[in-house]
Amino acid sequence: MGITSSVGLATGLNVDDIVSKLMSAEQQPAVLLQQKSTKLSTQLSAFGQIKSVVSSLADSVTALGSADKYAAMSARVSDSTALTATSSTSALAGTYNVKVLNLAQGQRVATNSGATPTVGNGTLTIQLGTYKTDASNVTSFEAASTTAAPIAFTGSTLTELRDSINKSGAGVTASIVNDGTSDRLVLASNSTGAATGFKITGTDGLSGFSYDASTNATGNSFTGLQSAQDSKVEIQGLTITRSSNTVENAIPGVTLNLTAQTTTNPVVVTVAKDNSQASTAIQNLVKAYNGMVSTMSAMTSYDAKNDKASVLTGDASVTSMRNLARNALTQSIRLSDGSSMRLSDLGVTLQKDGTLAVDNTKLNKALTEQPARVSEFLAGNDTTKGLSKLVSGTLDTINGTGGSLAGKTKGLQASIDSIGKQLDSWDSRLTSIEARYRAQFTALETTISSMQSTQSFLTQQLAALPGMG
Questions:
Q1: Which of 86, 101, 300, 365 is a good FRET partner for 78, with 20 to 30 A between their CA atoms?
Q2: For residues 378 and 200, what is the distance between their CA atoms, to the nearest angstrom?
Q3: C-beta separation of 120 from 205 below 8 A
Q4: Can you tell me the distance from the alpha carbon of 345 to that of 366, in angstroms, rounded to the nearest whole number?
Q5: Burial class (CB in 10 A: 0-12, 13-18, 19+), 294
Q6: Contact in structure between 230 and 243 (CB atoms under 8 Å)
Q7: pTM beyond cutoff 0.85
Q8: What is the DSSP secondary structure assignment for residue 112, as one 8-state letter?
């Protein structure tokens, strides 16, 4: 509110100073309202922090609900340059010797180096199939049951031929590579395996592009660069073939990804129980719970030495939320075999300061020796509602849409909004009060000034009477 500086000419009063002090007294209720609003806003922010840490706890609890974590298996290899391995929950613990004898590959051919071959109108038939060698070392081509339609080509360049082949869906990919001397058309199988070999038959302007690896024909435009073959691995002395370099379930529940042939020593694949996922999930739970406890304690603590309260000191709802979460996490759950289990059986125990601590030795022992019971306890099954679901339900009563935190924040926001309206009303009222004070002082000045004028007139009149002076 602007106050125009002035000193009463008739009264000699400092009107601005007087009005300022009067308004300071008038503003006290508004000041108190503003202080209350600030306090409520601080509390609202504090509950926002509590909501955040409770949400983090809820996320960590949900992560416990995946049963696969407790049945996880790992597959390690002694030489990752030859192969890598992954395992599923169905894998069985054991050690396996693996030799990579062949990698799967597709067929690849290229036009001869030198002069670019003549390209003209004609047809090109590309048949997929398998090249087989019999006992007499005679190789023949066995076409697949289905084959792409012949390519009816019209054109005169390798680029046009390449594009026609790629549009045909014949099961091969064509490209052009310059070897420093000439452009060469390269054809390669789209996939790997012995059955991805191909035979090419050209007619008319493409007759020079025929190719059959079994006849070793000369005079055509193609040179064989790579033959199609299956991958071949030896596992525990048994030879296994696949059409790709991914070998699934040759070792139950294990997938081998082949990358190079082995030389002399086999690769040792070790399949074992993997506790890392479950252990990490439980460690994250403890970390999230302790973070919640730490935040709530900081919000509600009281510094007796300095006689200083925290923002939510004395708010019983925060203590209630913490107790609900603690009781839910530390409850005992009856399993389908009639036994019971709680977090302390996994080495997770409650400390004097209200936080949780993990005995990693006890945790790993439980995960290794009792994975099924731990899974039922934490993730649940058809007959048991696991800890994850039970605690999630409890946390939802705290942090859900209709939970206690939502009720607290809604109430605080409503109070802040109400005070905001009262402050708006006070602003208008204070403006009117100041205007009234100034009008009163203006009237006082006018009255005093008038009285002073009357006094001056009377004094002059009296001085003019005979005998006066």
A1: 365
A2: 61
A3: yes
A4: 8
A5: middle
A6: yes
A7: no
A8: P
pLDDT at 324 over 80: yes
Q: Show contacts of 1-9: CB within 8 Å, 24+ apart.
A: 1/430, 1/431, 1/434, 3/434, 8/441, 8/444, 8/445, 8/448, 9/445, 9/449
SS3 304: coil
Q: What single-letter DSSP state applies at residue 415?
A: H
Residue boundaries of the structural domains of the chain: 65-69+276-400, 73-103+232-273, 108-229
Amino acid (one-letter) located at 285:
L
Q: Which residue's structure tokens are 């007619």?
A: 203
DSSP state of 466: T
Least confident stretch, 5-9, 121-125, 232-236: 5-9
**Nearest 10 degrees: CA dihedral of 449, 455, 457, 458?**
160
Alpha carbon distance 467, 238 (integer Å): 150
| Both structure tokens of 224 | 């064989």
| 99 DSSP β-pair partners | 234
Q: What pLDDT score does 3 carry? A: 40
DSSP classification of residue 6: -
Are 247 and 258 a contacting pair, CB within 8 Å?
yes
Please name the residue that has the structure tokens 């452009």: 183
Q: What is the DSSP letter of 400?
A: S
Backbone torsion region of residue 236, taken as left when φ is above 0, otherwise alpha when ψ lies between -120 and 50, otherwise beta: left
d(CA 239, CA 99): 9
Are 143 and 127 contacting, i.e. CB atoms less than 8 angstroms apart? yes
Residue 17 has pLDDT above 80, yes or no: no
User: How close are the terminal C-alpha atoms of the chain, in Å?
Assistant: 52
Backbone angle region of 155, left / alpha / beta, with phi > 0 → left and psi within -120 to 50 → alpha:
left
The size of the chain, in residues, is 469
Contact criterion met (CB below 8 Å) for 121 and 155 = yes
Best CA proximity match to 232, nearest among 347, 104, 73: 104
**The two structure tokens encoding residue 338:** 């009639």
Amino acid identity of residue 200, one-letter, is I
pLDDT at residue 303, rounded to an integer: 80
For 284, 293, 405, the CA distances from 298, given in Å and listed in that order, are: 21, 9, 17
| 359-413 tens-digit pLDDT | 999 999 999 999 999 999 999 999 999 999 999 999 999 988 888 888 888 888 7
- Cα–Cα distance measured from residue 332 to residue 402, given in angstroms and rounded to the nearest whole number: 27
Q: Are 119 and 205 in contact (CB under 8 A)?
A: yes
